[in-house]
Write a structure and sequence with these properties.
With 327 residues, this protein is an alpha/beta fold. Helices cover 31% and strands 14% of the residues. It binds (2R)-2,3-dihydroxypropanoic acid.
């Protein structure tokens, strides 16, 4: 590797074609494919690293930044960036990149998949069929919830929330939402109504979370919120695990405060195999796969490469979360 090229740490091994844009532009060192923390063998590169390409599982902390004094850019291959201490990066004038837009449709697809699966009890029904409990066509077996005419409450009407609204509208769901700002275009297109959170929780048959994880949204769905929901309601979380208080959710599902939950994200992640939520039949859990389509993941990686290369060149990142660094 030519020594004059900037050194870039990629925290995980990723398919070569996803990183094609980096070829000849930098010296790359990568960690193992499934690392859930910065691989120890990468630590020694921190003092020289100019670029840090990371996934959402790796905390980019003040401590890590201190070990990497030459860092010019942090590129997170995710739209969410709660794993990055953005304040500490800003203080050091390090721009942080993320990958918005390209995972909107994939994540909205998965949200609807979770909603349908929970509404129609697909995991339970599938398991019953496999395990010999399908004795006959049962008029009262596996009864689910209709989407047509039901109310979906979308918490967070950003890009992904709006893509969920577009899909939900086609299913005949009535739409209500919360957001810091009104979204007149969504209201006009899909007849959505903006409501205070308490009203949305009270009125919705399905509640779907699409907010970033921030101090304000941490445990937004706590025991009080869950108790205010309909007993027949279904909660869907494809945002970030800690937006929901896990223990309160366990009580809500096991004591019948709400009917079911479908989770793409959990707190913690991965959810330990002996976690009580796994024991509940009315809790569907999948391993953070909202953006897991081949196309989406490749586009995320390419966008992360664009951010990384711009940062190495000292140019403005195409998607920068701390634009203050340019002031
Ligand atoms: C993100 O990009 O923040 C998503 O959670 C990845 O699926």
């Amino acid at each position: 590797m030519p020594e004059h090229l900037p050194l870039v740490i990629i925290t995980h091994t990723l398919p070569e074609e996803w990183l094609a844009k980096l070829k000849g532009q930098c010296r790359l060192v990568s960690g193992p494919p499934d690392a859930d923390h910065l691989a120890p063998e990468l630590e020694k590169y921190l003092p020289e690293a100019k670029g840090f390409f990371t996934l959402l599982t790796i905390p980019v902390s003040e401590e890590l930044l201190r070990k990497a004094p030459k860092l010019k850019v942090v590129s997170n291959m995710a739209v969410g960036y709660d794993n990055v201490d953005v304040g500490a990066c800003t203080q050091r004038c390090i721009p942080v990149g993320n990958t918005p837009g390209v995972l909107t449709e994939g994540t909205a697809d998965l949200t609807i998949a979770l909603l349908l699966a929970a509404a129609r009890k697909l995991p339970q029904a599938g398991q019953d069929a496999r395990q010999g409990r399908w004795k006959t066509w049962s008029p009262t077996g596996w009864l689910g919830t209709d989407l047509n005419g039901a109310t979906l409450g979308i918490i967070g009407m950003g890009k992904i929330g709006a893509a969920v609204a577009r899909r939900a509208h086609v299913f005949g769901l009535r739409l209500v939402y919360t957001d810091t700002n009104p979204k007149p275009e969504i209201e006009k297109a899909f007849g959505a109504t903006k409501l205070p959170l308490e009203t949305l929780l009270r009125e919705s048959d399905f509640v779907s979370l699409h907010v970033p994880l921030t101090p304000e949204t941490h445990h937004l769905i706590d025991a009080e919120a869950l108790q205010s929901m309909k007993k027949t309601a279904i909660l869907i979380n494809a945002a970030r695990g800690p937006v929901v208080e896990s223990q309160a959710l366990f009580h809500a599902l096991s004591e019948g405060w709400i009917a079911a939950a479908a989770l793409d994200v959990t707190d913690p992640e991965p959810l330990p195999i002996d976690h009580p939520l796994y024991a509940l039949e009315n809790c569907l859990i999948v391993p953070h796969i909202g953006s897991a389509t081949r196309y989406t993941r490749q586009r995320m990686a390419e966008l992360a490469c664009d951010n990384l290369l711009a940062g190495l060149r000292g140019e403005r990142l195409p998607n920068c979360v701390n634009t203050e660094v340019y002031q």
